[in-house]
Amino acid sequence: MHHTIKPDAHGPFTAPMAHAVDACVHCGFCLAACPTYGELGQEMDSPRGRIVLMKQVLEGSLSWEAAQPHVDRCLGCLACEPACPSGVHYRDLISPFRAVAQAKFKRTPGEKLRRFLAAQTIPYPARFRLAALAGRLGKLMRPLLPRSLRPMVDLVPAMLPPAESWPGVTPPQGERRARVALLTGCAQQVLAPDINTATIAVLAHHGVEVIVPGAQGCCGGLAWHTGDLAAARAFARRNLAAFPTDVDAILTNAAGCGSALHEYHLVLRGTADEARADAFRQRVTDVSAFLAQLGLREPPRDPGRQQRIAYHDACHLAHAQNVRDEPRALLRAIPGVELLELAGSHLCCGSAGTYNLDQPDIAASLGGQKACAVIATGADVVVTGNIGCLTQLQAHLAKLGSPICVRHTMQVLRDAYR
Length: 418
Known about the structure:
By secondary structure, the chain is an alpha/beta fold. The protein has four domains: 11-101, Fumarate Reductase Iron-sulfur Protein, Chain B, domain 2 (Orthogonal Bundle); 109-154, no CATH class; 169-292, Glutathione S-transferase Yfyf (Class Pi), Chain A, domain 2 (Up-down Bundle), CATH 1.20.1050; 302-416, Rossmann fold (3-Layer(aba) Sandwich), CATH 3.40.50. It has 23 helices and nine strands. The strands form two sheets. It has a five-stranded mixed beta sheet. Strands 7-6-8-9 form a four-stranded parallel beta sheet, with helices on both faces. The mean pLDDT is 92.
């Protein structure tokens, strides 16, 4: 496909978007991998179709409004990337396009309010906790709320775990094998803070010194994936300043956050911070990949019982970061574990950042299908590496009356060493 996108017509993102457009040969391998194409069956709701739409908009032959619903419906799961024989970097197109399109797309007042509320609460743990508590009152008033805000109160959990905090430095147990800095996330701190506690405990147990930078903030993924470039850049710059450079790695334990940090060079493209962002992202790795490479100092103890564990691939771990084998290897290291695979494991669970808020019907359908796939394995526990997937699975397993427990890889590993 040859483009006629004018050089610099869309600022620093013109080149990566044009390159992604050029790489697509319309083969259609991406269609079977795309969850929204599976749901809706429309060419324009597939990666190939969206690439054509975005190309036409960027060239000026199609209106922004014509492309908007199809671009909005993209999960950004990136399942199309490993499926693509031409190596299209779809991530270099979808988020930059949304950043360029933000001012052009038309939103209803209700949509604008919902997006504003999400942007002003989710990235800030203290605000998010207050918003979740207020959301319980919202549940009681749901029939009186505008339709656009109902998905927000529908997602409010019945109970929040107590807040937790972590020391600035956790020393390693025994001889120090590595020194890392940990991103603690924002929504995760509120919804499942024990994931961070477990992560630090596992790392320290295996001889890793863990630094938790006090000045860190949200990864910026929510802003970047919804086209809020100014906010995404502000979050990125904050973390570039907050994280030390004298560590072996910058670790994440939430797939979406890790994926966002890996895209800082794109978020900050064309700015004075681009080179620093590129150096930063080279040191970012998921905790399961880091630990698998470092090696467990000793195997977990034998619990004396069998445990059937289903593993769910978070999209931004498997597709965006190519981390698939490492969490499975860590889980298989636990004596008595039978690891089970999900049917359609490449398909998104429907969480995808704020997708549950923006496209609740598609998100609910995908969540229900994923919960059914989990139940079909006969597992006792389903394990994943992303807070969004974890909460989505919990909600849909509960809807189906399933007792299957949902855990993070690090929680299961921590418990295995107890």
